[in-house]
Each structure stands twice: as structure tokens, then as C-alpha cells.
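Sample intake — beta-N-acetylhexosaminidase
Collected from: Algoriphagus hitonicola
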Amino acid sequence: MMNKNQKIAQCFSPAAFIHDTEENYLAIEKLIREQEIGGLTFFHSRHSAAANFEKRAESLKTDGTFEKLIELINRYQAISKIPLLISIDGEYGLAMRVEKTPQYPFAITLGALKKDAEKWVEEVGHRMGLDMKRSGIHLNLAPCADVNTNPENPVIGYRSFGDQVDKVAKLSFAAYSGMKKAGIGACLKHFPGHGDTAVDSHLGLPILRKSKAELKAEELLPFQYGIDRGVEMIMVGHLAVPALTGGKDIPASISRELITDLLKREMGFKGLVISDALNMKAVANLYPEPGELEWQAFHAGNDILCFSDHVKEGIEKIGQMASDAEVDAVFEKVMNLKKRLGVIESKSIEVPAFDWESHSQLQKDLAENYVSVISGEINPAELRTLAEGGKLGYWEFFTQSPSHFSQELNLSSLPIDEAEKVILGVFVPSHKPLNQFGMDQGVLDEIQKLAKSKPCILVHFGNPLALKHLGKLDDFEAVICGYQGFEETQQVVAGTLGF
């Protein structure tokens, strides 16, 4: 028989870092042995987790991440009495956390699919899920069901399927369904909807000042759509929605009114609620006493507590405050989830091999469906004639070495005054909006000057939200949006231009 604290421990899924010190690996082993935690959520490294807080871009490059992940999963599973529920936050696949694993398009890209979008998004979810399942992962903390209604949003952006409520509802459910079909768990996040916020909850508390009616028509709709179709898991974000909490600026993740009253009772959600990372500044600073935050999150109605920095104190505090019946109900939900996802039969796993050829074909099929001419028109025959006559120029920006695209076009770099027309390849350095998506203002000015001096075709590889920094789109003869920098995408764009 398990005692009350052992049952509570099954709700905890603290962070485990793939690249870490042996001392930290031993600290996780100690949590597994002494606290008997229920799961672990894997991240790349403390350094990359901190990048969210320190507002800087990634710079850590570490080798053998994937092999190390598998080795750690095996090591930790081997000492856990009840097999651990292993989760990862992989919105665009394992590659979001692990190098040299298949990367899939961002949600914003999938939102641009022109035909059969739901079918393709489900296929992407399915492939992503299979990659994870083979790697010993049971749960992907994705997809985002946030509607990206605020273009200044510092944290959602490319992670959302777009700014149209119905599309987000359908595609987030399709991604969820694909992962479920692969035999792993998935969750819609960040309830009640993080899209229209202007603060990054890693750093502070975003507040959404909308009426309940507005929220129902927008933010809550994709979640309701999923609930009506049997979604089994939802992650609650750290954002305050005073209209839903009696005017108080309390984070949703620790609000009983939001989780228990609204999500479970009013919206009819019967599944498991996962908290967003409990170390995020939006909530972590509210309760300085270790264990208090964990209790507040549990009391609000969270079933799985992610990234708690105070596991031992959290278990003790919940043990003192929660009734046996509450603990039993949550414990049963977590154990049923473990049975459903095959966690209980966890065996030691080998490092899987990926089918890169089939992955590349999928990338190509997807790119043919999302690459778009978003303004003006492309005349491939005219471009080929100009190229043959040595009158078509090509310039590219923000690349370290010549791109695959430049090899596909195979144009000589003409002096600008000799070219009749110029193709401008812009490879957006960052998918996050910080510092104009990593684009230097001097270079942006140069691109805009070129566009005004000559007929130019702008080819934009990367987050389409970065287009606003390139001036008026009318200044270009045509604009092609590539959405991603994948080689397959570059190839498809070259084909669109007639090369």
C-alpha cells in the first residue's frame, strides 16, 4: 500500500537537464529514490532553460545530446519503483530540445498550409509522436492552442497556428490527435490562452484584460473545441485574467476559479491538468516559502506539477493541507494516464535510428503546400530569360555561408547597377521577436534602399512575423514567404521562381 505522500509524489514532474553535472544527475536520482516522484520533464541544459530568463539567444552547442537523453532515461527508469512518466516540451519535435533529431515546421508555418491542413498537421503530430515514443518519451507538452492575436507577443508568435480562432482550434486538435495516434500523450496549452499578452511569463505576469464574453469567443474557443472532442490533457499558463477571477490579478496556473470552476465545471473538462513550469517568474516570486506554491497549484486543480524547484517541501505541504479523498482522486488520474501511455511496461531502450529520407520527403511535401507568393506575381519564364542573359542578380542576407538556395539558383552576383532585376534572399536569424528577430537595422535599411532602386523579388525564409521590419511590401515587385529555412523549403522556393 502506498501512503499519502507517495501518492502526492506521483504528481511531480521536476526538470531534468540532459547536459548537466554528475552532481546534478545524482540529485535527480535522490529525488527518485527518496521522494519517489512520478515523472521527469527533460530540457536540453540549464543554460538553454536560462536563455528564456536572460533574454539572450542560444549559444551552447553540445554533442551527443540524443544518446545522452536515452542514457539518462534508462538510468533514471532503472531506479524508480513505479516507472517514471517522461515528458518533453517539443512543439516542433524532439529537435526543439535535442540536436540532430528530426525538426518539423513551426505551428505558424503549418497554419499557412493551403490545402488539407488538418490532415497534414495530424501527420506531423503523428511523426513527431513516433520519434518521441521510440526515444522513451511518453508525453509531449504540446501543441499550443493559443490564438496569436497580439503581434507584439514576445512569447507565443511562431508557436501558434495563427490569429484565426477556428483555424487554431482545428489545427491544435489535429496535432494533438496525431500524437495520440502515435501512442504518446499530448496537451493543449496555455489555458486560458496566452496569445493576446505582451509580457513573457518567464519574466513577469502577463495580464489579459478582456471580458468573459470576449474570452469565450476567442481565447477559450480552441480549448472548448478540444474538450468537446475528448482531449485528455490541458496545460494551464501563468497569466492573469481578472475577468475570470473576480477582478484579482492571480495567475491562472494557481487559480481555483479558473481551473476547477471554469475549466472543469463550466467547460466540462474531465482530463488531467498540467501546470506550466512552476519556476517561471510569473508565479515563482509570489510564494517565497518553499512548498507553498506547489500547494497552491495543487489546490487550484492541477494534477501534474511541472518544473517544481521544491519537490520535498511541496509534497509535505500538500500532504498537510489536502484531504485523503483529493489526493486519491489525483493519484488515480495520474496512474490511469501511466497505464494508458504504456509507462508501467517501460523497458530499457536502445538509441533509435531515424528515417531521414522519409522525413525529407515529408518536409518537401509540406513546403510545396505552405510556400506562398504573398504579394505581387512571379513570372518564371521571364526570370529564366533574364538569368540566361546575365541580367538577374541575387543577393542574400543574414547567412554565414552561401545558402542551399543560392546553389539552386546558381546566379552570378552581378554588380547591382548591371542587374535589371534582383532576387533578395532574407534568412531571418531568429524565430523570436527580440532585437527585430536578430536582424541588424543597417542591413534592413540596405534591403529597403535596394527595393526602391530596382525591381526586387523578396524571398523571406523564417518567421513571417519578421516581415514587418522589411518596410512596405509594395516596394518589392513580389514577395515569397518561405516560412522556414529548411533545405527542402529552399528547393521548393527555387522551383517557384522557375529554377
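Post-analysis note: Residues 53-59 have pLDDT under 50 and may be disordered.
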